[in-house]
Design goal:
The complex is a heterodimer. Chain A is mostly helical. Helices cover about 70% and strands about 0% of the residues of chain A. In chain A, helix 1 runs antiparallel to helix 2 (about 40-65) and helix 2 runs antiparallel to helix 3. The longest helix of chain A has 29 residues, at about 5-30. By secondary structure, chain B is an all-alpha fold. Chain B has one domain (about 5-130). In chain B, helix 1 packs antiparallel against helix 3. Chain B starts with a helix and ends in a 7-residue tail after the last helix. The interface between A and B is medium-sized, with 26 and 31 residues.
């Protein structure tokens, strides 16, 4: 597995662990009241599991298994994929923790913007790799 | 395909089917006679995202991720089965008790057990998968 995929997948696993922990706290709060501030954890639960876990895992596995190139760098523009990794995680952190920490609204907005840029960067990287095996360069 | 993966994927498909059937019931006239159907939106969502998507990922990852550096190719089978059993136990308990709690009833601690079971299932998967994620 290439190094970037290791980073993507391990970070995804870390978010899975965090997301399930927060989810457990939220679910327990439905049965046994743990106090009102617990509900402020909801963005962390959602962002960790949807973006931090699922989207990140799919990026990591895609970077690993999509068809490679026969000439030049075998996985194409790796730098753009690394940029995607950085932006995605910056975005998840800002949009997950911003609301709970009471940070001003531009922070979650910047977080979601970073996530959109991450998706764009990853698409830019992966687009030429979406091809028949053995065809193209 | 390993036995555990087959169980994960078949359970994932049953969760997907259950979620879709629940959605049909939520939007049908049944909901007029069974008010708990109006309270199952979070349960429906988790059947899809945990029962279907996450469980499918767990099964395929156990099967296809790089081999474990130790003697056992896929890490600890016991940890894998623990994850499978706890995840599905947690989901079933949630399916049973969450609508009741959302309607103001007493979930009798079942949601707590469900939460702990799902949490341990997720952590067991992480613990078993982490050593398999290595650079070549």
């Amino acid at each position: 597995m290439p190094r970037l995929s290791v980073w993507f997948v391990r970070t995804a696993l870390a978010y899975l662990a965090v997301g399930f922990l927060v989810g457990a706290v939220l679910l327990i709060n439905r049965d046994v009241s743990l106090g009102a501030p617990v509900t402020r954890l909801l963005p962390i639960h959602i962002e960790s599991l949807l973006m931090g876990w699922m989207v990140q895992l799919s990026f990591g596995v895609a970077f690993w298994i999509l068809p490679r190139f026969r000439s030049g760098p075998e996985r194409g523009r790796e730098g753009v994929a690394w940029l995607s990794y950085g932006l995605l995680n910056l975005g998840v952190m800002a949009s997950a923790f911003g609301p709970m920490l009471g940070l001003p609204p531009p922070v979650p907005l910047l977080g979601h913007t970073a996530q959109a840029l991450a998706a764009g960067a990853f698409a830019l990287h992966a687009w030429p790799r979406i091809k028949m095996f053995g065809t193209g360069r | 395909m390993p036995t555990l993966t087959r169980w994960f994927i078949k359970s994932a498909m049953l969760s997907l089917l259950a979620a879709f059937l629940l959605a049909v019931a939520m939007h049908s006239s049944l909901a007029d006679r069974m008010p708990w159907l109006r309270a199952v939106w979070p349960t429906y969502l988790h059947l899809l995202v945990v029962g279907w998507l996450t469980q499918l990922i767990f099964g395929v990852a156990f099967w296809l991720f790089p081999k474990h550096p130790g003697a056992s190719v896929r890490g600890s089978e016991r940890l894998g089965w623990t994850s499978f059993v706890l995840l599905n136990l947690g989901l079933l308990l949630r399916l049973w008790s969450e609508p009741r709690a959302l309607l103001g009833g007493d979930a009798a601690g079942l949601l707590v057990i469900s939460a702990v079971a799902q949490l341990l299932a997720g952590w067991a998967f992480v613990a078993n998968t982490w050593p398999r994620i290595r650079a070549r």
